[in-house]
Design a protein that fits this description.
By secondary structure, this protein is mainly β. It contains 2 helices and 44 strands. The radius of gyration is 26 Å and the shape is elongated. The N terminus is likely disordered.
Length: about 525
């Protein structure tokens, strides 16, 4: 049957024209809704500021369409849970944001809901500029500030959480499946339909006093199973302060990017093991330009951790300082190909590296470690199972500047006080194949193998130990023009192409030792 159209004789042209009309109509249907807790009324239409809605219930009972916007008035206070419905499209996401001037609108769940904001099995949402809190009378398991959930859904696409202020979430401090709380959590699972995220962005958010954790993922899928890992996950430019347990944990992802985040204080209240930033069951995760300080205690307590069921984790251009447990934990089963390069550690305590269990093919190069006066630090603590085969660690081109004492030890057994520390003796744990070359160990060292003592002269850093808060405070770790480290390193393939400050690393010459590629 021939299609007819008053403007086109051709059936094809008629169809294309009508299809275009449908698209225009669909876009034209997108609406902006306003929500005002003081002057709104749920009997209003909600489509102008003068006819704003009043409550979260009104928002939650609506189903939004592609391109719709839900705007909350600045300075407004809402009690309850925000759980909006509907799904956007790739070209027309649904957007939540603020209107007017003033503080970010506050949504307070008051412990009456698991989360203050829930997005579940819905695609193409962007949530911006909200303030969310969830404090109940007592701590409870599974209490969150924000939860996004893909469950028996398949692929949950394009979820963006930007410029949120998530604070005062008193969830459980007990780890893992026992109900730990989170400031922001993503979950993927389901037996009927295997599910995951594809396009999750958490950017520019501030978290404070969230228990147990800051920003974390969770999945019940078996950790060795790599078939349902989340894709295109980016955690960027977030500030986390006074976190009860773990700061940022990447769980169940492939190729996640974690960059330019700042953590000031983690593991502040939990009594079990926690660290600043780390992956679990995630491959090819890139951690770069982050700053972690103030992680408390020695039940882990490190700034960074390369953990189980992870391959190809890379830590570069990060700044770690003043963490009780140290700089880096590398541990647990099926953990291979970790790369740690061009980072700076200042005044990290207990141990710089805790090398635990059956880790394979670790590369540690062109980092700078400063141990301050009065500190007695294990540069390397080797613990865990005896490997059945060789565990390889390549440690080259690093500077260990020891104003305090630095040691190399193996853990004999854990101390009975259960604070995460060990009775130790000099040496290595297990069957390790270690390449240790062109590293400078300068200052006060003990229990160091003789083969490590080939370069013990002053590396002539500009002003070691003068770093403060912020990566821009670290010029004291650049090399002086008369440094013996210039051009003395060993070339490393696939080295990231730049140093800590962005200088190019030459392909055809020996690099410098340390994090500054000075020519």
């Amino acid at each position: 049957m021939r299609s007819s159209c008053s403007r086109h004789d051709s059936p094809v042209m008629a169809c294309l024209f009508c299809f275009g009309v449908v698209l225009v109509c669909r876009v034209a249907q997108a609406k902006t809704y306003y929500v005002d807790s003081s002057n709104g009324n749920d009997r209003n239409a909600g489509i102008t500021r003068a006819t704003a809605w009043k409550s979260l219930d009104k928002v939650n009972n609506a189903t939004f369409s592609p391109g719709d916007k839900i705007l909350f008035k600045a300075g407004a206070h809402f009690t309850g849970q925000l759980h909006p419905r509907g799904t956007g499209t790739e070209t027309s996401p649904i957007i939540i944001d603020v209107y007017g001037k003033g503080e970010k609108p506050l949504i307070s769940a008051q412990g009456r809901f698991r989360e203050a904001l829930l997005l579940e099995n819905q695609d193409y949402w962007e949530v911006n500029n909200l303030q969310l809190t969830n404090t109940g009378p007592t701590r409870e398991p599974f209490r969150y500030g924000v939860r996004v959930r893909s469950w028996d859904h398949g692929r949950m696409r394009h979820i963006q959480l930007k410029n949120l202020f998530v604070h005062d979430v008193n969830g459980s401090l007990v780890k893992k499946d026992k109900g730990e709380g989170h400031g922001i959590v993503w979950e993927n699972g389901g037996d009927r339909v295997k599910s995951r995220f594809d396009g999750l962005l958490i950017e520019g958010c501030q978290l404070a006093r969230t228990d147990r954790n800051g920003i974390c993922g969770y999945t019940p899928y078996p950790s060795p199973d790599r078939t349902n890992r989340n894709l295109n996950v980016v955690i960027r430019n977030n500030l986390l302060e006074d976190i009860g347990g773990d700061g940022i944990k990447v769980w169940g992802c492939q190729g996640a990017l974690v960059e330019r985040n700042v953590i000031r204080g983690a593991r502040r209240r939990c009594d079990d093991y926690a660290a600043g930033i780390w992956p679990w069951a995630s491959d090819d995760t890139l951690f770069q330009f982050n700053e972690v300080s103030g992680v408390k205690g020695t039940k882990d307590g490190e700034a960074f951790d390369s953990d189980a069921y992870c391959k190809g984790s890379t830590y570069q251009y990060n700044y770690s300082h003043d963490n009780d447990g140290g700089f880096m934990l590398i541990c647990c089963a099926d953990n291979t190909d970790t790369v740690i390069r061009y980072n700076i550690s200042q005044n990290d305590r207990a141990r710089l590296f805790h090398m635990a269990d059956k880790n394979e093919n670790i590369k540690i190069y062109n980092n700078v470690f400063f141990v301050g006066k009065g500190s007695d630090v294990q540069l390397f603590l080797w613990t865990g199972e005896q490997a059945t085969g060789s565990r390889a660690a390549q440690i080259v081109n690093n500077i260990f500047y020891l104003a305090g004492i630095g040691r190399n030890v193996t853990g004999v057994r854990r101390k009975p006080i259960d604070d995460g520390t060990f009775f130790t003796k000099p040496g290595f744990g297990g069957d390790w194949n270690i390449v240790f070359e062109r590293n400078v160990i300068f200052g006060n060292f003990q229990d160091i193998p003789d083969v490590w003592k080939k370069m013990t002269n002053d590396p002539k850093l500009v002003a070691p130990g003068t770093g403060a808060n912020g990566r821009d405070s670290l010029d004291g770790y650049k090399l002086r023009t008369d440094s013996p480290c210039i051009g003395r390193g060993i070339p490393v393939k696939n080295n990231g192409s730049r140093d800590f400050w962005g200088n190019k690393i030459p392909d055809d010459e020996n690099p410098a030792i340390g994090a500054d590629e000075r020519r």
